[in-house]
Structure formats: structure tokens, C-alpha cells
């Protein structure tokens, strides 16, 4: 691969990460800001001479994931009982989310001026899928579910659901043009944004069995080939715009700390379970490598890689800096989007 080709490949991997959540980020270092309030992107680049505008302008969004981006899939698909804190403070009615307020995906949809995503599995209330469809369900994994899995809707099944959705939509549209008010147009499938936020449950489960570090690393590699295979299937079907969230600091989840953090020596400087956060870090490194490899084999793809781990770890470890408001917004992207920075971080790509 020559230098120019390499640069082009890099420029197709956009990085998103947040620095400050409350104060405006310093201009000197900033490369690209999402100006949430204006819903416009301005690009300022200090290392890259070319100015490449990026707009969050997609006719549709297809999302694959777990509870981090489930907008009602598990509740619809398994009649999962969710009673407490289910939409009380923001939606003022049960929202099907594993969060009282909005999820990151909801804030992203707002930023794109698109309606909140309907779950594929929702059968009641004639939901519109004109601007996309959400295949995420709480508890889902990258690895295929088996009889013992609590959630059958693993990544491979979510993909099958997507292909079924697409085929069915195109068939129906060819018969009845009026359905375009409810379904994405054929072209929209190619222009859509494909979002992935999955892997946390795979990592979580591995620690309930005795495993060596090597086994964890090998397991993560298996997750990456599964994810890569799925993205490739979408690319082969015409998907071009990918948006990948890396995994958050698993070791900071209260449930994990309660289970694995009883011994103080298991905790790191943030008070989180060190082994789990190390695994999350390895996962993210491999995810990043996988994205680069994917780009190398997919000449027309773009990937935006979002460093959710750093964003959440900052919120958790610096909670006192952000005060009550930030705690309320813990799962909200609002605060993050105001200062998130997307950059062509060539320094971290080898
Ligand atoms: C996406 O990739 C194509 C080439 O494959 C490139 O022309 C285009 O500028 C890229 N878009 C963004 C937003 O980087
Ligand atoms: C916490 O905030 C400080 C000061 O802004 C910053 O240097 C540090 O990186 C933050 N911690 C994390 C884990 O992001």
C-alpha cells in the first residue's frame, strides 16, 4: 500500500472522543467539533491540511446493539417486564429503555433531526420505519445466543432481522408506493448510517468462569471476527457509513463492583474492577484494529469510531467536577455532544 492510499484509508476512520463536558474544548487542539445546538459540523484541522466536511445527514439509521441502545426491543420481543424508572422523568410513560431518560442513540437521532428509533420487534401501534429501524435488545451478545442465553437476539440474529426487514420493505414498496411514508426507500439503505454498540455482555459473561488473560484475549479476537463478518455482510449489501461505539468501562458498573470488587486489591484508582476494565481496553484496541482492517478491505466505507470508554470513565472518575447535573445526565449524550470532538487522529493509527 503506498503512502497516499494509506492516508486515504486513515481519513476514512473518523475518531470521536470527548475532552471536557462542561467547558468548551480549547481550539488549539481541536480538530472537529460537533456543534450540537446548531446541528452543524465545523471542521478545523491542525494536522491535516485538507478540510473534509462531515455532516450528520443520513436519510435513515439502522442500529445493532444491546441495552445501551435498546429503545424497546426486548420489552416488545420478550414482553420483558420493566416497571421501575422506565421513562418517568423524561418520556413520562414507559419507554422500553433500560434507562429512565434518553439513551445516547436518542441524542444522536435528535442531532440528526430524525425521530427516535422504533424497535424492529414492536408490533403494536403501527410504528414508522421510514427513517430506520432499531435491532438492539438488552442483554444481547456478539456471539450467537444458545439455549442458555437470556436473550436470543444476538448480533447474528439482529443481522438476519435487518436483511429480512430490507427484503420485506423493498417487496412491499414495489407493490404499494404509499408505504414509502412508513419504510425507507431503496436508496436510503445505501445512504443510511449503520450503528454498532455491542460487546459489553460478551465481556461481562466471560468473567463468571475461571479464565486466564490469554483466554480473554483469544475470546475477544473471536468477538471481533464475528463483528467484522457482520459489517462485511452489510457492506456487501450496500452499506457504506458505519458508526462504531467502543465498549464502556465495564468494571465501573455497580453490579460488577458489587460482585467482583469486594477485595480492595481488585479495584483500580477509579474504584472500578481492574480486570474488567483491562478486558474492555483490550476489546477497544482490537475493535479499533478491526475497523482499520475493515477499511482496508472495503474501499468505499467510512467508519466513525466513538470512544465511549473515555467519555464514561471521565464522567465516573470526575463526577465531582460535573456536579448533580452531570449525574442526572449520566447516560445522556447531550452533555457529551456539546463538546465531543471528532478528529482524524492519525497519531493513534499505526
Ligand atoms: C467516505 O469515503 C469516501 C471514499 O471511500 C470519500 O470519498 C468520502 O469523502 C468519505 N466521507 C467522509 C465523511 O469521510
Ligand atoms: C478528569 O479530569 C481531569 C481534568 O480535566 C483530566 O485531566 C482527567 O483526564 C480526567 N479523568 C479521566 C479518567 O478522564
TrEMBL record:
GO molecular function: hydrolase activity, acting on ester bonds
Keyword Transmembrane helix: yes
Transmembrane segments: 21-39
Highest rank taxon of the organism: Eukaryota
Keywords tagged on the record: Glycoprotein, Membrane, Transmembrane, Transmembrane helix
Pfam family, one: Lipase_GDSL
Annotated PANTHER family: GDSL ESTERASE_LIPASE, ZINC FINGER FYVE DOMAIN CONTAINING PROTEIN
Record family assignment: Belongs to the 'GDSL' lipolytic enzyme family.
Stated name of the protein: Uncharacterized protein
Organism, scientific name: Gossypium raimondii (Peruvian cotton)
Source species taxonomy: Eukaryota, Viridiplantae, Streptophyta, Embryophyta, Tracheophyta
Amino acid at each position: 500500500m503506498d503512502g497516499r492510499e494509506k492516508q486515504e484509508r486513515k481519513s476514512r476512520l473518523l475518531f470521536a472522543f470527548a475532552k471536557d463536558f462542561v467547558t468548551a474544548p480549547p481550539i488549539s487542539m481541536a480538530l472537529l467539533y460537533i456543534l450540537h445546538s446548531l446541528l452543524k459540523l465545523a471542521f478545523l484541522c491542525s494536522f491535516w491540511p485538507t478540510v473534509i466536511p462531515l455532516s450528520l445527514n443520513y436519510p435513515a439509521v439502522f442500529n445493532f446493539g444491546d441495552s445501551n441502545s435498546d429503545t424497546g426491543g426486548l420489552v416488545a420481543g420478550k414482553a420483558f417486564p420493566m416497571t421501575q424508572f422506565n421513562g418517568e422523568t423524561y418520556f413520562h410513560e414507559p419507554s422500553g429503555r433500560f434507562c429512565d431518560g434518553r439513551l445516547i442513540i436518542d441524542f444522536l437521532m435528535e442531532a440528526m433531526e430524525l425521530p427516535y428509533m422504533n424497535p424492529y420487534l414492536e408490533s403494536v401501534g403501527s410504528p414508522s420505519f421510514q427513517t430506520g429501524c432499531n435491532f438492539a435488545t438488552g442483554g444481547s451478545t456478539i456471539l450467537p445466543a444458545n439455549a442458555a442465553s437470556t436473550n436470543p437476539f444476538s448480533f447474528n440474529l439482529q443481522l438476519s432481522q435487518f436483511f429480512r426487514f430490507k427484503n420485506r420493505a423493498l417487496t412491499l414498496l414495489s407493490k404499494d408506493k404509499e408505504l414509502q411514508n412508513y419504510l425507507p426507500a431503496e436508496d436510503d439503505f445505501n445512504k443510511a448510517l449503520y450503528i454498532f454498540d455491542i460487546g459489553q455482555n460478551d465481556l461481562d459473561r466471560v468473567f463468571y468462569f475461571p479464565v486466564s488473560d490469554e483466554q480473554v484475549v483469544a475470546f475477544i479476537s473471536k468477538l471481533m471476527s464475528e463483528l467484522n463478518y457482520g459489517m462485511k455482510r452489510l457492506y456487501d449489501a450496500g452499506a457504506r457509513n458505519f458508526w462504531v461505539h467502543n465498549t464502556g468501562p465495564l468494571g465501573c458498573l455497580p453490579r460488577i463492583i458489587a460482585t467482583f470488587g469486594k477485595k480492595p486489591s481488585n479495584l483500580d484508582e477509579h474504584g472500578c474492577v481492574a480486570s474488567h476494565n483491562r478486558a474492555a481496553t483490550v476489546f477497544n484496541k482490537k475493535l479499533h484494529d478491526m475497523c482499520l482492517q475493515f477499511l482496508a478491505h472495503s474501499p468505499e466505507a467510512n467508519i466513525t469510531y466513538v470512544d465511549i470508554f473515555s467519555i464514561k470513565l471521565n464522567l465516573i472518575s470526575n463526577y465531582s467536577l460535573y456536579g448533580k447535573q452531570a449525574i442526572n445526565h449520566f447516560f445522556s449524550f447531550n452533555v457529551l455532544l456539546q463538546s465531543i470532538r471528532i478528529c482524524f487522529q492519525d497519531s493513534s493509527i499505526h
